[in-house]
Amino acid sequence: MLAGCASDKSPTGASGGRVMLGPRVQIQAIAPAEFGYRHQVAQVLVMRFGTQTINLEAQLAMGKDEFRAILLDSLGRRAVTLVWRDGKLESQLAEWLPPGVRAEAILADMMVLYGQPAALKAALQEAGCTLEASTTARLVRCGEKDVLKAEFDLKSPRKLNGSLRYTNFAWGYDVEIQSVEVRR
């Protein structure tokens, strides 16, 4: 969830509502209402970029009007803050993050992982990409190339309690996530 090719540590907005799923793979962002869940979720993430590993904790809040993500490192330092609402991405990225971390790439990954399949298919189609989705897996292909593959092991298809593993082949990293929904 924390990768991209070009470094961008400053607050930013998704240009024209578009996000980068990979180098030269720009897709239309889905609306917060098109995410498949309406809950707050706590997560533990293990991310691997080549030989580098990063452990993070995340809080996600998905609502009809807003998607919000806050990621902290194991020392409690804020690494990423994302707020997606009204067609605009507001973000803050910590200066100590590895080069190449992009807010738009993080949002793109979260869209593919948690978005409703019909909305994702429409967003991907414009970029010449396809989505294969089931309750246990998702695969995004652009042309003949696999771009992102996710495998879910959730206790229920309607809740984000359980684990998932995904690889973003375009940016070259993989992530293991343990999730639990938080009651408000």
Describe the protein's architecture and organization:
- By secondary structure, this protein is mostly beta strands.
- It has a single domain, classed as Clam (outer membrane lipoprotein receptor (LolB), chain A).
- Helix content is about 10%, strand content about 50%.
- The chain is built from two helices and twelve strands; from the N terminus they run βββββββααβββββ.
- It has a ten-stranded antiparallel β-sheet with strand order 7-6-5-4-3-12-11-10-9-8. Strands 1-2 form a two-stranded antiparallel ribbon.
- The chain is globular, with a radius of gyration of 15 Å.
- The two termini are about 25 Å apart.
Quick recap of the structure?
The protein has 184 residues and is mostly beta strands. It has a single domain, classed as outer membrane lipoprotein receptor (LolB), chain A, CATH 2.50.20. It is built from two helices and twelve strands; from the N terminus they run E-E-E-E-E-E-E-H-H-E-E-E-E-E.
